[in-house]
Design a protein that fits this description.
Radius of gyration: 22 Å
Shape: elongated
Distance between the termini: 40 Å
Order of helices and strands: HHHH
Number of domains: 1
Largest sheet: none
Number of helices: 4
Length: 68
């Protein structure tokens, strides 16, 4: 390796993860607001019906995590 090669970096450029984190938090906030408004409008059924509806999704995620 020459000195010229050592001065250049072959590492991949840094990616901007702040926009990804922003969108994750934005979607999470939208879900929480939607669930809160469902509770406000429908009362107790607005609390438990979305939770029951998410059971198959959470079950699938747990199976995927368990299998690796």
């Amino acid at each position: 390796m020459s000195l010229g090669q050592a001065s250049t970096s072959s590492a991949p450029p840094d990616t901007d993860d702040s926009s990804t984190v922003f969108w994750i938090y934005a979607v999470l906030a939208a879900v929480v607001v939607a669930w809160g408004s469902a509770i406000f409008v429908f009362g107790v059924p607005g609390l438990y019906i979305p939770a029951v509806a998410l059971v198959p999704l959470i079950w699938t995620v747990l199976i995927i995590i368990t299998r690796g």
